[in-house]
Amino acid sequence: MILLPGVIVREDESFEEALKRFKKQCERAGILSEIKKRERYEKPSERRKKKALAARKKLLKRLKMMKKR
After folding, report:
1. What pLDDT shows up at residue 1?
2. Backbone angles phi, psi at 3, to 5 degrees
């Protein structure tokens, strides 16, 4: 079961503050990134290419950090 973000507005709290808390909860739950990911269909081959690119980028970044030390 997935818990969706929800905010109970306190008596002394403004709408803007409650909205800010709600947005932060949505961000933590990963809702926005999930929406962006599902915005359009991505072919499995495109998904594999992106995954390989991300892995390569991560490896290069790690090597760069190792060189600095």
Report:
1. 58
2. -90, 120
